[in-house]
What does this fold into?
Amino acid sequence: MTTSPRWLSESYGPGGGGAAEGILRNLDATEMDPVTLLVRESAQNSWDARCGDVPVDYRIGLRTLGPSEAPVWRDLLLENAPTVEHLRLRASLARPVIRVLTVTDTGTKGLGGPTRADVVADGDSNFVSFVRKTGSSQDLDSRGGTYGYGKVVFHLVSGPHTVLVHTRCRVGDGFETRLIGWAVHESYSTDTVDGPKTFTGRHYWGRVQDGYVEPLVGEEADEMARKLGLKPFPADGTGTTVAVVDPDFGERDDSEAMQWIVDAMVWNLWPKMLPEGGSSPMRFSVTRDGVEIPVPRPSEVPHLRPFLWAHGEMDRVIEHKTMGRPLGRIGVRKFIAPPGPPPRVAQEAGIGERLHHTCLMRPVDLVVRYLEGPPFYEEHGGYAAVFRADPTMDRIFAATEPASHDNWMVDRLSGDDRRLARHALKKISDAMKEASGPTAVVNNAGDGVSLAGMSKLMAGLMAGAPGQGGSAAFPTGPDPTAIGPANWQKASTEGQDSGGAVSGGQTPGTGHHGRRGARLRYLEEPFHDTIDGNAVLIQRFELLDAGEQAVRGRLAVALSDVLGRESEPPIGASVPTVLGWRSDTGDISRSEELHVPGGDGRIWALVVKPAPDTVTEIAVSSDRKDGPT
It folds into this structure.
């Protein structure tokens, strides 16, 4: 007769062993938020378990057990469970609302190999490394780390330090599903039927036999996972789900916690989201009670975007010339600082109001940390750098990382390894010092544009621009000077050395100018950006009317409220120019005039090179090409 799975508390053997609280404390060296650490460590584990070149699907979901599910969890997980004094699971499952956080990967190998730690593995040993052993090390080429102490973060995030591990792996020529529970608390002593005994504080849930716990396997594991509501793996697929019982998000509510997870994914895993527009190495999703929470592309996060630019320009080799060793590659990009503070996840990583950091990575392309450098010389500018260690240095930098993999502590090393690692960090520091000084950004027209001047102009614009991010419709016309003064907004730019500020239309409503004029809608006010290192102005808009249209950018230089706008610039003076157009679907036109159909929902952006020492005024006009209306 088959018995139900139950708990068994691990007792000390004659030779002793490690106390469970010691395992938990191995992550105390980091000040990183446990939820951020969960994202970092679990994603690294998923990447290490990938199957060849197949993309890894990495998913985190939070769900509240329904009225029919909660009693099942209580019945199945409270069988022979330790008392509340030794494990808080009973208290968690007694709550009227039970929540479970799941971390799932597919496109991975699953936890295969032997299920006992005393069996010598001939090949795969992922199950033993993840479930049985603590602090074990694996020599994995081109991989992020090991199933060492970092895996304990799952228990840290769980209120009762309890998780269920559901995995499907290859065994021989077939597949096998495995399911086991695992809890970590504190060591203790208590009276038993065999007399007083001491226990390690580790507890396992599954099939008890011969004094230890084996996982449920095969059809029994599939059936039990179904009862618990854990999603099955494809019949011919492999992967792992770790279910965190009663997650503790600290002071955050569930909505805030899931958004934090999204931000943690983007800021810590963005290299695995590249290349955009192609097949990325990892695919990410986050859900709460079945509702998907969007994970933005890295390029959509303003404060992260400069690191992507630097990542694409890692053309500078850092080396130790005396020792003849390449240490890595670095890319550096200066930019006009985006408005507003970065997300709190980025602030936790050490990024404050201003960006002056280097993103450190090993060859596995997972973020180790953002190393702070000297502030940029001008208040509204910044720089971002990315350093990727050379593959020959991977072993050395891996040895410097703590259990949380969030720092390079090079003083742990000795001899040549220490010399190489310290030299790399010195060169990174030198690159940041160099980047913190004055520079000029060269635009496509060849004119030097001072980053300092541009950033000051932008700061004045952002401070005085009402309705930022709002949406309004504007009348258009073939002649910008025919639009009344109320249709234009100016930004103060007194005393600027170069660069250009921007103003845009601000008239509500829609309308036509001329018999063939077509309606368009500005989605927001003009804003500053950089494209390929060039300072530009952007005006986003939507063509409301259907039919083929000719769209033009109307640019002018504002002088003052009295003098109006400059229609005939002085001889030799710079003027704002149209660089081109781009759409949200990836279409690009480098012509001065855009010919496209309207009414299709596409969002277009007019890209403008500003004139130095001016306020640039922007208007967009559109004429129908299919006859008068």
In short: Confidence is low (pLDDT under 50) at residues 135-147, 440-515, 559-568. The longest strand covers residues 195-209. Residues 305-438 form one domain. The chain has three domains: 6-298, 305-438, 448-624.
